[in-house]
Write a structure and sequence with these properties.
Strands 3-6-5-4 form a four-stranded mixed sheet. A two-stranded antiparallel ribbon has the order 1-2. The chain has two domains: 9-47, no CATH class; 55-167, Zincin-like (2-Layer Sandwich), CATH 3.30.2010. The protein is 31% helix and 21% strand. It contains five helices and six strands, in the order ββααββββααα. The N and C termini lie far apart (79 Å).
């Protein structure tokens, strides 16, 4: 018979934990490593819960970023040349202290939903969209998409010095029946 270290089958990781009691005695317990949990019934390690193309893999932050990108792409189709000097950013929540230089702010009940920060030196103008306040005001994903689209259009309109209806004549503020 071959020699094995410890009471566990070969290939199992073994760790020893020693704790000193108040009287100076050692208590010894053996803790099995992570392989015990992952291969509990001998079926192998767990794989991903869903393939990458399934929306389950997309985090809420990634989902929101994609909604913003879709809204920006929609506006850029018509205004690409004028928007080359404008950046878009997404932040979780608005800062507690508003920036000193805020060109335009869209707020709801005193909470900023988006801000247009003007260009300063080498930094280009930037539209900052706040994720959590918008998600809290939307009923579902479709409502969130409409809300983000309208906010992007309003901020771009302010940046260009136009009305939102001119920036996006077919989609701004329209309700579906």
């Amino acid at each position: 018979m071959g020699s094995r270290a410890g009471p566990y089958p070969a290939g199992r990781r073994e760790a020893t934990l020693r704790a000193v009691s108040a009287r100076g005695n050692y208590a010894r317990s053996v803790i099995a490593g992570p392989s015990r949990r992952r291969d509990r019934r001998g079926r192998g390690p767990r794989g991903p819960l869903a393939p990458p193309q399934v929306p389950l893999v997309e985090s809420p932050t990634e989902r929101f970023d994609n909604i913003v990108l879709d809204a920006v792409e929609h506006v850029e189709q018509r205004w690409l040349d004028q928007l080359r000097s404008l950046e878009f950013a997404v932040e979780e929540v608005p800062p507690t202290e508003p920036p000193a230089m805020v060109d335009d702010e869209i707020a709801s009940a005193g909470v900023p939903l988006a801000r247009l920060l003007p260009a300063a030196g080498a930094t280009p103008a930037r539209v900052v969209i706040y994720r959590r306040p918008l998600e809290l005001r939307a009923v579902d994903r479709e409502d969130l998409e409409d809300l983000v689209h309208d906010i992007v259009v309003e901020e771009v309109a302010h940046f260009l010095g136009l009305s939102p209806e001119v920036v996006d004549p077919e989609g701004f503020g329209q309700e579906e029946d």
